[in-house]
Design brief:
Elements (H helix, E strand, L loop, with lengths): L1 E5 L1 H8 L2 H5 L7 H9 L10 E6 L2 E15 L2 E13 L8 H13 L3 E4 L6 H5 L8 E9 L4 H8 L7 H18 L11 E4 L5 H13 L7 H9 L4 E2 L14 E2 L2 E10 L2 E11 L2 E9 L4 H14 L4 E4 L2 H8 L7 E10 L22
Parallel strand pairs: 4-5, 8-9, 12-13
Antiparallel strand pairs: 1-2, 2-3, 3-4, 5-14, 6-13, 6-14, 7-10, 10-11, 11-12
Length: about 350
Amino acid sequence: MQIESYNRAELQELIDSDFYKNLNQIPISYHRAMSHIQNPDTHEDDELLWAAYENEQLLGYVGVLPGYANINQERKKIFWLSCFWVDESLRNGNLASILFFPLIKRYKDQLFVSNFLPDMEKMYQSLGVFKPSLLKSGSQFYCKSCLSNILPVRFPKIRFLKPLLRVIDFSVNLLLSFGKLFYKPLTFHSKIVFDINFDADFQSFINTFYKKNDHIERFSEHFDWILNFPWVLEGKPDKKSKQYYFSSKSEQFYYDSVKFIKNNKLSAFLLLKIRDRKLTVSYVFAEDDIIDDITAYILQKVLDENLIMITAFDERISNKIRKHRIRYIFERFCKRAYIFPKTQNILPDVFQEGDGDNVFT
C-alpha cells in the first residue's frame, strides 16, 4: 500500500493523468478538484488530499479545505476537514489511522471539523488534539410534506411504507395549495438585484460587518470562487459521478446571489443555496432593519419555486419566518457540531452557515 499526498499543482496533475481516468473509484471529482485549485486561500505548498492505493486501486482518502479564521483578533490559516472515506472492506483495520497520521502531523493545530456524521465524532475525539464538540443552533422550516423522503432514510425498516407516505404527501400538499389563497401579500421596501458582481463597493459593504462582530472574513474573490467553482453539478447521477463516494451531481443545485438596494445604497447581501428543492441561507450580511425584506424574499421564492424546506442559522431570519406561521407546516430545531483544536480559542458563533465546506455541499 502507498499513500500519496497532493498539493495544488500535484492535484492538477492527478486529475489530468491517465492513472486518474483509469481508476474505478476516484479520490476527488474533477470539478471539486478544480475548486480546490482555484481556492483563493490555497497556497502552493498546502497539502490538500491524501489517498491510499494498492495495485492502482483506491483504498481510502482524506482531504482538507484551506481557509482563514479570526482567532483572538488575529487572522490565522486553518484547514477544514472536507472529506474522509475508507473502503468498506477495510473499515475494521487501521487504514483510517494511517491516513489521518500525516494530516494530523501537518495540521494538528489548524484542523477544524464540521459537517460530519455523528458516529464519526468519537473517532475524531480519540485523536487527542480536539476540544469537546461545540454546537450552533439553527432551524429547519418544512413548507411541504415530504414524509416519503425523510422517514425511510431515518427509519430504514419502514421503507416498504414509502408508497403510502407518497399518498400522504400528495394529499397534504394538495390541501396546502388551497391554503395559498389565504397568504397575505408580501411587501418589499428595497430594490432586489440579482448580481454576481463582487466589486470594491461590495467589499467595502461587507467589511462593515466584520468590524461589528467576529464573523470570519470573506472577500469578493471568495464569492466569485464559490459561484464559479461548485462541488456539485446539476444533473442526474451517472456512472462517472458514482465513481466518487461523495456527492458530485444533484438533480437541482444552484446558488441565488441577491443584493438589496435601499435609498440607492447596497443595504444587504444574501447568498442562498438551493439543492433538490431545499433552500439554505448560506450567507447574510444585513442590518436588522432589512431582515423583513430578506425574509419576504425567501418566503416568496419558496412559494414561486415550490420548495420543500428552509434551513437558517441566522436567528433574526428564523424569528421573522415564525411570524408567517401559515406558510410552513412545522419547524424542526437543528444543531451543527464543530470540533476545534485544543490550542485555538474560538466559538461556532463566528461562522456563518456557509463557512467551511458547507456552502459547497
